[in-house]
Design a protein that fits this description.
Length: 191
């Protein structure tokens, strides 16, 4: 029996892990034309679901505590792109070993998982981008969806699908996005 989940769209699979499936409602219409978005009813079943669905290569997005499951999936292999939204570090996962594009999106006012955790995680990941949303708390999608949702969408399009920037009104949210982005690039001598 396959773990309870919702699937929308077709194309390369993206596993969306969060504390409530409905949190992805505004992101799903953006992903649907490009990707197969898979939302498990329980984020703890993400690894089981990926196996049951035979997902060989996929992206994973984890919000809050569900980001721990996303990191474990990435450490197990098959994950090609990872996005974490206000997620704590996963115990037992060595982020230094993950050789994938990673996007860490945090609210500057996150009082659940401090920015220092995001910065430490970003430093550990060789190919990471850290974005901080001003005047935003822990739940970036609920606190500032008009900023967070297009950023998640664009990172998946560019880093997972390899598509150029989508400058449509639908993707951009219609205006400037006031964020601070810190990019961690690998040391060229280590390549």
């Amino acid at each position: 029996m396959t773990a309870a989940h919702t699937t929308i769209g077709e194309g390369p699979p993206v596993l969306l892990l969060g504390d409530r499936p409905q949190m992805w409602e505004e992101l799903l219409p953006l992903l649907e034309p490009w990707m197969q978005a898979i939302v498990p009813a329980d984020p703890a079943t993400g690894a089981e679901l990926a196996g049951q669905l035979g997902l060989e290569e996929f992206a994973v997005v984890g919000q809050g505590e569900a980001g721990v499951h996303a990191q474990r999936l990435a450490a197990a292999g098959n994950v090609k792109t990872m996005i974490l939204l206000g997620s704590p570090e996963a115990p037992g996962v060595d982020l230094h070993e993950l050789d994938i594009p990673a996007f860490l999106l945090w609210g500057e006012d996150d009082d659940v998982v401090p920015i220092a955790v995001a910065e430490r995680m970003s430093d550990a990941l060789d190919f990471s981008t850290l974005a901080l949303i001003p005047e935003c708390g822990h739940d970036t999608l609920a606190d500032d969806g008009p900023t967070a949702i297009p950023l998640v969408y664009e990172f998946l399009r560019m880093r997972f699908l390899g598509k150029s920037h989508g400058h449509s009104e639908e993707a951009s949210g219609g205006g400037a996005v006031p964020i601070q982005i810190l990019t961690h690039r690998p040391d060229p001598s280590q390549l």
